[in-house]
């Protein structure tokens, strides 16, 4: 994909989303229940859409929230439901709608004290803490949660995620159940949805304020060496990218005596201050150099510059060398954590998705730890974080979380601030920046070349990839090297990967449809050089062309 001529530049006022039009569409437009594209659909990260496209409207939120209430009753979940929202324009509207339904159903709902936006990891941490602290309650009192966020997606988008009592993203069996129930309500015009006026919902006894900020900030020493960061005197710059992490950084700085400067304190649901991404779209992706261009320009002012996306489940790490590729940073995270977390279970491994760099495998092998490779989606790491069999779980898209010092789970969803602060801990204790540490790793393990290619994908293409079998992959070599593995199921948990991964000794490619966009993603990596990466990409593209032509 060619780089858009305005990539890295802020949009002109006339190109920003019209907030009045967006909000009017949320309340006045309704989905056509006969069109699959306008029904409730949970991808890898919940239901996402836009009110302007009739894919994220009041009717959707009423139906999904009632479905969550039904699911809770079916499962006997009687503890509080923690609810959070990020800073997208549609998030507050959807939050209010969901609260009206939850209160009408009598669900004990904990909402952010003072209406402060809440990061996804703060909600996950709250659920994990509640359920650990009430593990022996009689009768059982398990908590779960809802996060209203489309993550790093553009300003006109909305999103709705459900986290069951384990605290992480819901597994497919759960989301399919909620999806089916919600679409049933939509088919009936939401006639059976329970709902009360917003003022009555806010005043209901079952709706209670909760201080997510204090809980998250005060607990950080359980998972990070905050004293070492403070003693180092590191000068940290933070750009929340207009997201939910903004209210957290100042309390963190004050509580632990850190030198943190918030370089962008603005909240604006048009995200007018975020430079356009590679394709010219405003997308708050802290792993992309284009939205991060302003922070990159400021990097000489700080020892480390850090960023999170709107719901703070992703991290962006900027050193004096520039923005770190997420795969590079995650490799240094594996190296640092496995050496420094002596209280973790002795043989705990590292969890990674199939499309995350093979460098993590080499670093883990150096530390004599296993790698658990799973399909795309952080939900797959939840059981491993809960039982301590994996010390961390991570995705190539700059998402990760890891265990507390004592081996207990911190959050079972991706945690951007955690990974940002870990970069500071790493620099404080190792005396080198994460990028310098990665350079040392490449001297021992090689310097992989990694790139993801995107192409438009219609429903036919998506279905072909989703149902691909090993027998359909007739490849003997890739990039000139013999094929060692053809994977359509993840070796870590034997779950379908919704595509294919083809592996050689010195590289690999994987192809899968996006769970949230009408594109096919082709991931490629070479442990030789750029020229070899191009050969792998040529073979991957040729394979895709032949596959589609034959189907």
Summed over residues and divided by their number, the pLDDT gives a mean of: 96
- Quote the CATH topology of the largest domain: Alpha-D-Glucose-1,6-Bisphosphate, Chain A, domain 3
Per the principal axes of the C-alpha atoms, what is the gross shape?
Answer: globular
> How much beta, percentage-wise?
15-25%
Question: Portion of residues in helices?
Answer: 25-40%
Second-tier CATH architecture of the largest domain: 3-Layer(aba) Sandwich
Say which CATH homologous superfamily of the largest domain is assigned: Alpha-D-Glucose-1,6-Bisphosphate, subunit A, domain 3
Distance between the termini: 25 Å
The level 1 CATH classification of the largest domain is: Alpha Beta
Tally of strands? 23
User: Going across the major beta sheet, what is the strand order?
Assistant: 1-2-6-5-3-4-7
Domain count: 3
Low-confidence stretches: none
Helical stretch tally: 17
Q: Helix/strand-derived class?
A: alpha/beta
Computed Rg: 23 Å
Largest sheet: 7 strands, mixed
